Amino acid sequence: FIPSGYLTVMKLLVFISVLGVIIALGLAAGKISFSYFSDSAVSDGNVFAASAEFPTQTPTFPGLVINEVASAAPGNDEWIEIFNPTGSSVNISGWKISDNTEEDIIPTTSPIPSGGYGVVMSDDGNSSLIPASAVSVILSDSTVGGNLANGGDKVVLKSPDGTTIDQMNYGSDTSIFNPAPDDPSATESLSRIPNGTDTDTAADWQIDSSPTIGTENSL
């Protein structure tokens, strides 16, 4: 005959052992956060308690940069160039890009390779301007954002959960940099010089009289 209390204790010990394995595996994986679970059992007047920490993954997003902006291009030919300085390709499908008035969700598109470029343009724009070496990111909208404003606006790139990945402004808009980089004309762009430089200051940006859509920036 085995007392019922003894069986309860043995089950609890097995439970604790399994939890120990879960915790060890979670810690070995790294980059985890914890939520807590507790349980208790009573045997012959004694209270036995167990707790467990279950690992949950915290999403991280790679450091892409808005690299060049042609905000005053004729018609709906405005475009935004995104550069991937990381060591692996990045899929931006489902990410968001916005200006001061409107936000667009990036549709399913090819990943931007390491060291590569993606060019965001509306479906009403002249996509033939985008070189074959760059990833075409075509928005199913007649404009990029609320139509990038001549004179001043901002551009913000966000992950699917709304985390800001990169942002910039120009002209009369001072919501990010104050003073802001200059406002480009219809034949110019704003470019990060040197290419991909990101010090989070307006000094990263210079007017380029010969835009380099989908390729390395240079003056």
TrEMBL record:
UniProt cross-references to SUPFAM superfamilies, sorted A to Z: Lamin A/C globular tail domain (SSF74853)
Stretches that traverse the bilayer: 12-30
Domain of life: Bacteria
Keyword Zinc-finger included in the entry's annotation: no
Annotated Polar residues bias: 167-177, 186-200, 207-219
Keyword presence, Secreted: no
Region Disordered: start-end pairs: 167-219
Protein name: LTD domain-containing protein
